[in-house]
Amino acid sequence: MAALNIKKGSSSHSAYDLRDPHAQVESSHTLAVLVDNEAGVLARVIGLFSGRGYNIDSLTVAEVDHKGHRSRITIVTRGSLAVIDQIKAQLGRIVPVHEVHDLTVEGRAVERELALFKVAGTGEKRVEALRLADIFRASVVDSTLESFVFEITGTPEKIDAFADLMRPLGLIDVARTGVAALSRGV
C-alpha cells in the first residue's frame, strides 16, 4: 500500500486519495422521538436502525406523559444529512410515533448524560482520583478502602474526558445512561 503525504493547503490530488470529494460528511445527530408507551414500540424503532445498517451511539427511553401513555426515545446516531433525513422519515412512518425532532439541526439543545465510574487505587492514585473528581464535580457515591464509585453528570465529551483521566488511576468499570436532551427556549 502506498503512503500518502499531503501538505496542509495543498490543492494537488493524489491518485491514492480514494475519498469521494462530493461525499457528505457524517456527523452526530440527537433525535427526540415521542411514541406511544406500549409493548413492542422500542423494538420497532431499534429494528428500523438495525435493518438498514444504521448504528445507535446512545439510546435512552422513559415515559414522559403518564396520562397520555407517551414515552420519549432519545437516540444519538451518525450519518450524512441525507441519511439522517431518511432515518427521520422512516421513524415518522411507524404508527405509534407522534413526533420526530432532530435536536442537532433544529436549534440549540441541552444534552446531558449520567455515568458511574468504579476506580480502584491506593496511595497517590487514590488521592489523584479524588482531586480530579473534585475538578469535574463528580460525587463519591460509594467508597471502600480499595475503591470509589464516582457519579458524574455532563456532556458526553465531559464523561469521555473523565474516563480518559481515570483509566491510568485504576478505572475498573463504567455505567453510562446515554444522552438525555431537550431543545432550549420555548
Automatic annotation (TrEMBL):
Residues 1-21 are annotated as: Disordered. It catalyses: 2 pyruvate + H(+) = (2S)-2-acetolactate + CO2. Keywords: Amino-acid biosynthesis, Branched-chain amino acid biosynthesis, Transferase. GO terms for biological process: isoleucine biosynthetic process; L-valine biosynthetic process. PROSITE patterns: ACT. Residues 30-105 form the ACT domain. It comes from the Bacteria. One of its GO terms (cellular component) is cytosol. SUPFAM superfamilies: ACT-like. GO terms for molecular function: acetolactate synthase activity; acetolactate synthase regulator activity. InterPro entries: Acetalactate_synth_ssu, Acetolactate_synth/TF_NikR_C, Acetolactate_synth_ssu_C, ACT-like_dom_sf, ACT_dom, AHAS_ACT, AHAS_small-like_ACT. Its EC number is 2.2.1.6. Pathway: Amino-acid biosynthesis; L-isoleucine biosynthesis; L-isoleucine from 2-oxobutanoate: step 1/4; Amino-acid biosynthesis; L-valine biosynthesis; L-valine from pyruvate: step 1/4. It is an enzyme of class 2 (transferase). NCBIfam families: acolac_sm, PRK11895.1. Belongs to the acetolactate synthase small subunit family. Catalyzes the conversion of 2 pyruvate molecules into acetolactate in the first common step of the biosynthetic pathway of the branched-amino acids such as leucine, isoleucine, and valine. Dimer of large and small chains. This is Acetolactate synthase small subunit. It comes from Phaeovulum veldkampii DSM 11550.
